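INTERNAL AUDIT FORM
Audit reference: QA-55
Scope: verify that the stored structure record matches its stored sequence.
Auditor: D.O.
Record contents follow.
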Amino acid sequence: MCKGWDYCMMIWVIAISFSHLANVASSQITVAGQVQQRNLGSIDSTSTGKSFQGLSRRSRRQLGESDLGLAASYMDELYRDYSTARNQLVGDFKKRNRIAVVFMCFNRAEVIRRSLPAVMRSEGVEKFDLFISQDGGADYIIDQDIHFPESSSIAYIRHKVNLCTGLHHHFVKTFTFDIMGYDGLIIVEEDNVVHPQALQLLAQMIDLSIDQPEIGIVSLLDMDNSAFLDDRKYAEGIIRVNGTMGHLWVYGFHKSRYEAVRSDLYDYYNTIKGQDYSRKHEPPLSDIIRALLVSKGFPANGELSQDRFFIYSLEKSGYRRRYQTMFRFFEPIGYLGLHHRHSEDEFFNMFGRGMFNGRIKPQAAFDVTKDVTILLDIKAGVRDHINRVWLKYFTNEVHEKLVNNTFNSLMEGRLNGVEAMADIKKAGIKFLASKSGQN
């Protein structure tokens, strides 16, 4: 842990000399501080340049100048004429629906074999047009391994050049809205196994967001907070959170949001085009991107990735919030993914295992923040869930400070439920150990 924990532990030791009640109060304050620290850390660890710089060095796909030039030429050619690009990419594919689902991937066969079939098995998948966009340079050819039913509306795009994540994400957006003309886009990255009803839920969230002037994107919660919530009441619940909270792993947005930031995204595209994007945290590319951030009025020390630039652009256009689910409707399997380079244990200790395993009515999705009585009920549930663990160690019920901290973190989209509950258990164990030592 960090220095904050050491400080809290000093307070803890001092508090042992006081009464039992003082010990309990001190424990709860310690846990409250830990929960807050965990929540902030879970976001900061994936948004700071230093963290990503280390990750990019370990995950770099080395590209030569000729490769970079080919990627730039390939993209520019697609954007020269949308009709030609459409024919080149999907041939005579018949557009049948208003929302496109794009599965983004590279070459990890063992991951794709788990995640892509989950998308294809999604309930109501026939209501979407599904595109598989595989980055070039991949040895693994998907359609030689996974069968695509003839009746399905699926198009497989295997790019002839290596785009890397920056150009690839730009392609997905421009392909969906400019080349194909869809009303909505849902993106699923290769290292996420989606719940059977996730696509339906995201589509409903996109529709709910259209008339909400502050909502830019909609996303599935990437942390497991089920330990603090009642899934019988709030499985379909969604919350409004800060647009920068959470990762962009499984998410969507309406074409009006894309159109609002289209010029900004093209500026970013033109900045990274012809550059080795895996080196975006190193000069000269880092300096070029940072100069672009400053020119747009974005944070000068902000994250350099295309995901964060997209969020900054939405924020500038007034879309400062996002809709996010309260439960996790996908299982992240990306401990060797595009965003993280952890061991399997480290990754799952951070994000937890599994997903929501029940069933919902996707069309019943509702914004819990619009009803104060709902918020009060959720807070009462948080208190109850904490007490189920707390009272195993302490005679007094949980202090309101810890309840407030956990509830606020949950509603602000920054709670890491797995680590927060682990902190609560550790506090109880330490308290019992301190009593035993006293005796």
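Auditor finding: record pair retrieved intact. Confidence is low (pLDDT under 50) at residues 1-22, 40-60.
Action required: none
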